[in-house]
Specification:
DNA_methylase_N6_adenine_CS, methyltransferase, seven-stranded mixed sheet, nucleic acid binding, protein-glutamine N-methyltransferase activity, 23% strand, alpha/beta, Methylase, 15 strands, Rossmann fold, six-stranded mixed sheet
Length: 384
């Protein structure tokens, strides 16, 4: 743990230090003070907004209640700002929403917890979170400090991993690891399950799954009869997650999981990619599954696809048009990128998302989400 930064605070007249852990990449707070059950929500919220972190020494459940109270106060601020002015464009609304989310995360992340070297929390009524912390952090060799809000994320991810996500196309569950995008939006999985396989796969039954994540699309292709699939990812957690899911489903003989930046060596009859859908900069490492700065992965996939397709093969790009409704990318720009990569559109399958946020009228991005369509673009290399 010597690579982790150190935070400093004064407690009972003594200077104290501890390692700082943050999987979201948040830097250690510069000002830390001790807080306990006597701290009011108003005082805690004010100090957090001013940049002072609160290291909790009271009852664990009281810390949770305090964080909830701070969250209610954080929710009041955007409502007051919204009443003052309305964003002029969808892109402006998106950027303001991201700024508000970032500020909220910073403020709520200021309530800190102490952890012992075995991931236990030395507070009254603290739950056993050792397995959730081990899954996300790995082992620890000394005490450390982390935010209560991050711990809640770790516990939520642990429950997802333990219980899994039901995938109707597989008739089975996929178990996402911490930091790996969970396939809770089933429409993109259904598209891959329903799209007609290229005729070439009847004689050349090999596919690539680019950016495999949990391995769910590789599993779907394997269940559809593709005999050999190479699934790639750069992230260690994703690679471990995909291997574990595929082993649980009994598909390791068909699917090989390899670490690679986009494409493996060789060519395939089918190349599938579901890149992050929004061309914006992630505010933490955990957001890379959602945000693709400068459309790096999307353009990397398109520009490398033709060279990795067998003659007569297809590339399947699964992507939402949410970025178009947010004013972050136009349909013309997407089509121009496809053309510039030496590709043609052989067909497209569309589906309307059905996740809960589509009908959430309180969401600042509701208009864009309500209009969203997820598409599977069937791409082929241009003929000479």
């Amino acid at each position: 743990m010597s690579d982790y930064p150190v935070i400093h605070w004064n407690e009972k007249g003594e200077e104290k230090t501890a390692r700082w852990r943050s999987e979201s990449g948040t830097p250690p707070p510069k000002r830390v003070m001790i807080a306990d059950d006597r701290m009011t929500a108003d005082a805690a919220y004010r100090l957090a907004c001013e940049g002072t972190a609160l290291l909790w020494r009271g009852d664990f459940h009281n810390a949770r209640q305090l964080l909830q109270a701070m969250a209610r106060r954080a929710a009041e601020k955007p409502r007051k700002q919204k009443a003052k002015k309305t964003p002029a464009t969808p892109a402006q609304a998106f950027h303001l929403h991201r700024m508000a989310q970032s500020q909220r995360a910073r403020t709520l992340g200021m309530l800190l917890l102490p952890f012992d070297a075995d991931h236990s929390i030395p507070l009254r009524r603290a739950p056993d979170v050792s397995q959730a912390c081990t899954d996300a952090y790995g082992g620890a060799t000394e005490p450390y400090v982390a935010s209560l809000r991050e711990l809640q994320g770790l516990i939520g991810a642990y429950e997802w991993r333990k219980n899994g996500v039901e995938i109707p196309a597989l008739g089975a569950r996929i178990h996402p690891h911490y930091g790996v995008f969970a396939p809770t939006r089933g429409e993109y999985v259904d598209l891959v399950n329903e799209a007609p396989l290229p005729a070439l796969t009847a004689t050349r039954s090999i596919a690539f799954d680019i950016g495999t994540g949990t391995g769910v699309l590789s599993a779907v292709l394997a269940r559809r009869g593709i005999q050999r699939i190479i699934a790639t990812d750069q992230d260690r957690r994703a690679l471990d997650c995909a291997r574990e899911n595929l082993a649980r489903l009994g598909l390791t003989a068909q699917v090989e999981v390899v670490q690679a930046d986009l494409f493996p060596e060789g060519r395939a009859a089918l190349v599938v990619c579901n890149p992050p859908w929004v061309p914006a900069r992630p505010s933490s490492p955990l957001e890379h599954a959602v945000f693709d700065p400068d459309s790096r992965m999307l353009l990397g996939f398109l520009n490398g696809l033709a060279a990795h397709l067998e003659p007569g093969g297809e590339g399947w790009l699964i992507i939402s048009d949410l970025a178009e409704h947010l004013g972050l990318r136009t349909r013309a720009e997407l089509l121009a990128a496809i053309d510039a990569a030496g590709l043609e559109v052989a067909g497209r399958l569309d589906v309307k998302p059905h996740h809960p946020r589509v009908s959430d009228t309180s969401d600042p991005l509701h208009a864009a989400r309500a209009a969203e369509i997820t598409s599977l673009w069937r791409l082929t290399a241009k003929r000479d």
